[in-house]
Amino acid sequence: VRLKFAELYTGNGILGLAYSPRVVALAGQRVAMRGFMAPPLKAEASFFVLTRNPVDLCPFCNSDADWPVDIVVVYPADDAAFVKNTVPIEVTGTLETGGFTDPKSGFYSRLRLTGAYFRAIA
For a tag on the chain, would you pick the N or C end, based on fewer CB atoms within 10 A? Predict the structure, then answer.
């Protein structure tokens, strides 16, 4: 099942963003998403950030205002080599929802793909 960035959230008014009905229905299932790998926080990071468009920033390098709202944190199933932030990739993993703070980095996420694999796409 392919999930698109445009399908992640609904709303943007005073009540903020909410998970879309599609995300709620797919939570806990394996999904595929296409996007770009943001520059890693550090070389030994156990995760990377998937973005809709290429970004030149790491999450801790700028303020929250500069970081896209619709990011997905990806926890690879095994040690994975990072790819350049301009190379489109497809990631397949189990969709997790809900707030989570990574215990090693302190990075907070609302959406994650765990046990993930990725490949560069043309």
Answer: C
Burial per residue of 71-84, b for 16 or more beta-carbon CB atoms within 10 angstroms, e otherwise: bbbbbbeeeeeeee
Residue 53 token pair: 């468009």
User: 109 in helix, strand or coil?
Assistant: strand
Rounded distance, CA 120 to CA 23, Å?
24
Can you spell out the DSSP letters for 49-87?
EEESS--S--TTTS-GGGS-SS-EEEEESS------TTS
pLDDT tens digit string along 82-107? 888 899 999 999 999 999 999 888 88
Determine the Cα–Cα distance for residues 74 and 68; give it in Å rounded to an integer: 15
Q: Which residues, including other chains, have CB under 8 Å from residue 42's CB and lie 6 or more apart?
A: none
pLDDT of 62 above 60: no
The answer to whether 40 touches 15, Cβ cutoff 8 Å, is no
Cβ within 8 Å of residue 114, ≥6 positions away: 75, 93, 94, 96
pLDDT tens digit sequence for 18-42: 999 999 999 999 999 999 998 766 6
